[in-house]
Write a structure and sequence with these properties.
By secondary structure, this protein is an all-alpha fold. The chain has 2 domains: about 120 residues, no CATH class; about 180 residues, no CATH class. The chain is built from 16 helices and no strands. The longest helix is centred in the N-terminal third of the chain and has 32 residues. It is globular, with a radius of gyration of 20 Å. The relative contact order is 0.09. About 0% of the residues have low confidence. One of its GO terms (biological process) is mitochondrial electron transport, NADH to ubiquinone.
Length: about 350
């Protein structure tokens, strides 16, 4: 793919995202989502591998179905209320259809099955875009319409996402699939608290993006696609692997790292809302995710696989490090001491 094509697609992604997050009209929000979908498909299928083509097809079909549902939902609402404003969602059937559409877009359970498969068929850079930038427009729509949506349905989908995201990531050996299930689980946490504190959802989303970008950039630098590759990368780039281990532990939500902040605040907010049982359940479910994060961290720093061949191991090289990695890694590890300042600004 030529640099000019990549630039055009990147600008299209930026344009689509900007249109959606700044629009107050349903049709312009839908148009922004469509621009995003059409811009990301060539990036998914750029390798021309059958798996990449399959991933692009799955992505197109699911996103087209979600966009059609969203357009039908907004049209039905406009028909009954005469309003095209995103925040004026008053028709109950339209609310249900919109919830399903956003859940498909985000990859929330039970509409999550496409997401791990698409990530597995994409390159690490495209998987990074799918896990972060492509989540921003539907998350914005969810935030704008959260007061109109059915809280019981959102709660159920959020709990299912937290459970399935942790449970289905346990047996994976592909790093992209592990991070896909991690994304599903984190989105469950964000959706759970959106009914009570939308600002907290936004904070959790920003911190999730920070940590995920750091992990994907590090894995892209070492070209890590499987756990077996991760096991041998310590000898090549020990410093990079150390930061990867710490960022994974941060994404797992271990104190005193940044990832502990959103989970701590969400549990605190649920306790304030007299939902201590829910807070306890999601804390227990997060242990499932902690297991596969620890497994990734363990593989990246401690273990080397048995090797009886005479082939020489790859040792440390002078490969230049992407400047974006330290820029994203430092805040994804060290923001917890600044939490009082962050809380006063949200």
């Amino acid at each position: 793919m030529s640099p000019l094509t990549k630039l055009a697609l990147a600008l299209s992604l930026l344009l689509g995202t900007t249109i959606t997050i700044t629009s107050s009209h349903w049709v312009t929000a839908w148009a922004g989502l469509e621009i995003n979908t059409l811009a990301i498909i060539p990036l998914i299928s750029k390798s021309h591998h059958p798996r990449a083509i399959e991933a692009a097809t799955k992505y197109f079909l699911t996103q087209a179905a979600a966009s059609a549902l969203m357009l039908f939902s907004s049209t039905t609402n406009a028909w009954s209320s005469g309003q095209w404003d995103i925040t004026q969602l008053t028709n109950p059937p339209s609310c249900l259809l919109l919830t399903a559409a956003i859940a498909i877009k985000l990859g929330l359970t039970p509409f999550h099955f496409w997401f791990p498969e698409v990530l597995q068929g994409s390159s690490l850079t495209t998987a990074l875009l799918l896990s972060t930038a492509m989540k921003l427009p539907p998350t914005t729509i969810l935030l704008l319409t959260s007061h109109s949506l059915n809280p019981t349905l959102l709660f159920t989908m959020a709990m299912m996402s937290i459970a399935f995201g942790g449970w289905m990531g346990l047996n994976q050996t592909q790093t992209r699939k592990i991070l896909a299930f991690s994304s599903i689980s984190h989105l469950g946490w964000m959706t759970l608290i959106i009914i009570y504190n939308p600002k907290l959802t936004l904070l959790a989303f920003y911190l999730y993006i920070l940590m995920t970008v750091s992990i994907f950039l590090t894995m892209s630098s070492t070209n890590t696609l499987k756990l077996s590759t991760l096991m041998t990368s310590w000898t090549k780039t020990p410093m990079l692997n150390t930061t990867l281990m710490l960022t994974l532990l941060s994404l797992a939500g271990l104190p005193p790292l940044t990832g502990f902040l959103p989970k701590w605040l969400i549990i605190q907010e649920l306790t304030k809302q007299e939902m201590a049982t829910t807070a306890t359940v999601i804390s227990m479910l997060s242990l499932l995710g902690l297991f596969f994060y620890l497994r990734l961290a363990y593989c990246s720093t401690i273990t080397l696989p048995p090797n009886s061949s005479n082939k020489m191991k790859q040792w440390s090289t002078k490969k230049p490090i992407n400047i974006l990695i330290p820029m994203f890694t430092l805040p994804s590890l060290l923001l917890l001491p600044l939490s009082p300042m962050i809380l006063t600004t949200t």
